Amino acid sequence: xxxxxxxxxxxxxxxxxxxxxxxxxxxxxxxxxxxxxxxxxxxxxxxxxxxxxxxxxxxxxxxxxxxxxxxxxxxxxxxxxxxxxxxxxxxxxxxxxxxxxxxxxxxxxxxxxxxxxxxxxxxxxxxxxxxxxxxxxxxxxxxxxxxxxxxxxxxxxxxxxxxxxxxxxxxxxxxxxxxxxxxxxxxxxxxxxxxxxxxxxxxxxxxxxxxxxxxxxx
Length: 218
Description:
Largest sheet: 7 strands, mixed
Shape: globular
Number of strands: 9
Oligomer: single chain
Strand content: 15-25%
Number of helices: 8
Order of helices and strands: HEEEEEEHEHHHHHHEE
């Protein structure tokens, strides 16, 4: 028996259905919903896997203070895949589940503490898993965006304390831990460059028309 494939028309319908359930997000592209809070993108990728028969709702964030050619899937988690045949019966509950489980809320203005708590929560949950230096980069750079020197220093200390025990070949890829920490500290202290990176990322990734929320620096 041939399974139904997800067509371009299906993608538009699926995206619209999810957007109606979570209207605080904007449609970035078919199967991708995002909004912007401060320099952070928060969204849901409705990722179609090989076979083109189902999609996987995936929460993610992306920090625009780090140059990157595509929107990354930071702090990501997935919920149960949905086949095109079961979309109508399952998307409502799946969207509600995503809203409940999102470690950064999709709606409303937020403060920096809420964002940083999400990163720390994700880090603690994934200890022993993949090595993710971006977690520490984002904590430091988001603190720098808010010009919070105390949080910048805490982020750098958190990075050093946790990364000292990483395999040498991983740290070598970063140019060595000490050099990486110095570079990150220098980036955090150059707010003008952070603003330039943010503006370039918004233009390059074409996210300027997405809904915007306010990030309070406390």
